[in-house]
What we know:
single chain, 2 domains, Umud Fragment, subunit A, alpha+beta, 32% strand, ten-stranded mixed sheet
Amino acid sequence: MATAAKISFVTLANIETGKAGASPEMLEKIAKVLNCAVEDISENLPFVLPKDPAEEKGVPVVGVVNARNFNFSYDMPPETHLPLEVKLPNRRAVALRVSGDCMVNPDDPKGSLYDGDYVVIVEPKNKECPNGKIAVIRLSGDEFTLKRVFKTKDGYELKPDNPKYESIFVKGDIDVVGIKLAKWSP
Length: 186
């Protein structure tokens, strides 16, 4: 079913066991494969819809991004909004809780993103990330990571700030979901 729905086997297993939630888009894919309505399967599955910013003040928290490998969790962190105000014309900011330690730079503790911190991202202009910026990257369907992005001759290097982890090299294009605008520590 994961192949037919174009989601990873791990993600599907996490959804089925309740370890992770499913986005509305994922629910639609799964419902289509099962030939049923989204409501038939979503009743017992956790998922998060980004809140309308008009409902509450601050930056909406929409989930958790794994800073180590490619995974995105729709498990909602305790905060639903961060007490920050971001004003960008025609661009909306959202926040994700960071999971993992690959963006912890021992030489730059203040600039590091620690496990449990929140990263505020904005949609990039032209779906591109400037060289050296930290971004949330989608490689396929529901697989995301948080890394520093560098353009290479035939693709991209997704580089962690923590030297104990290795870079990931991607041939071809990547999908930049959002570029880091700010960090917020609880």
